Amino acid sequence: MRIAIQGFEGCFHQIAARNYFGKQAEIEACASFPELVRKVKNAENADAGMMAIENSIAGSILPNYSLLKNSGLHVIGEIYLQINQQLMVMPGQSIEDIKEVHSHPMALLQCMDFLAKYPQIKLVETEDTALSAKHVRQKKLKTTAAIAGDLAAEIYELDIIARNIHTAKNNYTRFLAISKNGVQPPADANKSSVYFQTSNESGSLAKVLTRIAAEGINLSKIQSFPIPAKEWHYYFHADMEFESLDHFQQALKKITPLTEHLTVLGIYKKGNTHT
Length: 275
Hints:
Elements: E1 2-6, H1 12-21, E2 26-30, H2 33-41, E3 48-55, E4 59-60, H3 62-71, E5 74-82, E6 86-89, E7 100-103, H4 105-110, H5 112-115, E8 122-125, H6 129-138, E9 144-148, H7 150-155, E10 159-162, E11 172-179, E12 191-197, H8 204-214, E13 218-226, E14 234-241, H9 245-255, E15 260-268, E16 273-274
Parallel strand pairs: 1-2, 1-3, 5-16, 7-8, 7-9
Antiparallel strand pairs: 3-4, 3-11, 5-11, 6-9, 6-10, 12-14, 12-15, 13-14
């Protein structure tokens, strides 16, 4: 399979794709999330996609929810990836040789406690963690380090001189596996992502949530979004966890009369956590 990802070879999206689809999966690198969605939707060198949707520290990636809703694509699975940041250099270099550290602004921010120990080192913001590692290798920058994941060090043959330098050790990103045609839900499916609207009447959303709770469904995520054409009207993205497919289907029947434009994006197995 060829999997569309946002970012460059060696990025965390690729790590997530390899963990979910297997190491044999080929990568179609995309410069942006809209490009990723377009390539999956139009089958442009991509059989499926892997897209970050939320982070345990930074929160939801709101534009990606809207992209997903408007794309008509299906969610076929998910994976949770621990974001471990490594300091990497050209072989033979040490921390004393380093004058600059290059990486994405978020990665630099995540590693600030470590970097503060070396005030003499200049921090340089770039567009991507893996791209920073690539530039160190291609330009043979002997006084420059990059912050990226293990895969980038492996691909670009860089030495990791400091491991797990991020301050918060509980930093996880949730990625969704998406496809154009969807797949048959597995027999052990226990999670679903849906979109729905409610009427603008008082208590309409509360009725839906009450019914979900009454059916024993765990609402692990709910995110509201304004409807551009209607002032003060909203649609909702909801992730629901359940015991069995029959359990979910029964709950769906109960909430459908209380909602408008309910769409099931996918039914899948709750994702595992990878480091």
